[in-house]
# Entry
Amino acid sequence: MALDRRSFLRTGMAGFGSILLMPSCFRQDRSWLFFTDAEASCVIALCEQVIPSDEHGGGATEAGVIHYIDRQLVAVFDYDQVVYQQGISALQAACLEIYGGRFESLEPAIQYFICTQLEENDLSGSDWGDLRQSRFFSLLISHTMQGFYGAPRHGGNRNYMSYKMMGLDYPLVVGRNHYRQLS
Amino acid sequence: MNTKHVNVIIVGAGAGGGVVAKELAVHGLSVVLFERGGWPDYDAHINDELISQRTQVLGSAFGPDYRKNPRVRIYSDGNRQVVTPINGDYGHNAACVGSGTASYGAMAWRYMPEDFKMRSTYGAVEGSTLEDWPISYEDLEPCYEKAEWEIGVSGDDSLNPFAPPRKKRQPMPAFENNRKGKVLAEACRRLGLHPFPIPMLRNSVPYNGRPACIRNRTCVGFACPVDGKNGTQNTVIPTAIATGNCELRTHCQVAAITSDASGRVTGVQYFDSEDKGQTQTADLVILSASATETARLMLNSATDLFPNGLGNNNDWVGRNLQGHAYTGAYGVFDYEVTDFAGPGATFGFCDFNHHNEGIVGGGLLCNEFNALPYLYTGIRPPGSARWGREHKDFQMLNIKRTASLHGPIQEMPNFSARVTIDPGVKDYWGIPVAALSGERHPLDHEQCKWLSGKAEEVIKEAGALFTWQSVGGRGLSGGQHQAGTARMGNDPRTSVTNRYGQVHDIDNLFVADGSLFVTVGGFNPALTIMAVAYWVSDYIRKNWTGTQFKS
# Structure
């Protein structure tokens, strides 16, 4: 399956970069290397809970964290594909069962509450099989942190926005002696 | 490929192998130096934290390739898992020319005299194979000096009352303290401790034809963009090649050591850069592939005379896998205490390395290397939010306000912490992989708790708003400071090599890397690996007759 998507994207990369700026584009068929559009919407909402936007700056959505995760799921993290598919599917089943809607359609406060349940293996309403909820959520936390705070060349941290938030220079000024500047 | 017979094969172009290659090539021996990786390339990885040597979530820029080099981890419940270099339990060490010395933090410690005499200083420790080295600090002192001058160290011992005696100063002046270092060092002095600048294998001034350090933020875990960090890849290895006597073969995976009927080794079988099987013969074979891979190679080279692996008739090869449990404490201040000048670690103190009541050994404490943004996402007081607004706020407010003291605890060698060969799993080339099993000695965690408490006291004294400890010492050791798996000793029944790194019963097979270490000290080991490599080389040079050893 991943191979199909990969080969599709080889021809479809052109429109890829602008997706985040135009949410309506999510509905384009096969916008992603790994995710379906529906899966991507769910993961975008989850990542935004992990690193939300606030008055200090944008969160995971604005940083493009979904691109980082999507790219790595057909590369280095290919062994995590099943965790994502299984996790998203079980999460959506639970949301439909309990709240009557898909995760990304729920109020942010409810999304937040669901995430606290995932962290504690405490979300009822669907069968997670052999996948622990906390494992799925921990993986998502790690990947979101990598996408938000890692190098932009992997798809996330758009324009070094997390560096801007932390007050770190961006891109790195090679050779600049911060120590001398401060003393 | 040219596989003409040579005097010496060296497997692994890291801290040990690079030194041996240079010493023997300069002495006129013909050398083939095998390295499974390639030359480190700054432009290939720039300042990308996710592929750095400290945070290799997307695979390390310095190798090995995570898809080609699996290992097996055997847990205490018997569960066996295939692990890769992007998996935490792999015990990763760099695979490139220079190995860890291309990307390390470059601390340049001499071990203290007691570090070579742990058993006679502290007595036996139950459940540990704690022992004295067969060589002393005094034996190694000239080798340390050679490493400091040939590879290049900046430092000044005069403020360290615990510094081991030296005949000659380090070649470059010490580095200055950074902002968090000044704050913490002052607190140390108020507490009666003895802070001093960390000796570094980095240029504080131009040295050896290369420029001085530029305090690059992305230093530890990365190659240096101006080549101001000194490893074997920019010092002894180029010197070895320049003699015309040393051929470096990169991207070559050595599979096994070959032997003749008398038990002497004859060369190696390897896969070249195009994955073709090749044979190279030599008068001597020297293993410098790191504690895991050196042991794996010996165990993968069984013969009729050594049915359990070369040098392994007494079952000591692969045993006593050690490294360093890092332990310490963090504090958050109400002002920006971290300036992100690289590498970030500037001062240390040795008050807790030896002779503390109730402690066997101990460890150094230093202000820590820069925690880059992704690494910092995991640095939180216990009970803190792992995600969400609270986590993001902590990151934003405190990444520059956090300072820490950490250090490597002297681990107690454990006979059951070991490298074996997995019977089923093979790497990309079809070579059976290393299986890692066992745990650290329980004392390590106890001593980590003690050292973390000392670190926290200093950070509190420095005026942190709040502090917390991070205590290491559980699980299996190994990793970048891996050591101990081919122990040197005087008794063949309880060691793998003699005091010169010569494998017992095989006079033309040597080890020259951290595998030889009997104990690992409470210090980063790179300079000591280099010194031991000079020591082994010196023995080979003095006893070389042209084609063999004096008998």
Notes: The first helix of chain B runs from residue 15 to 26.
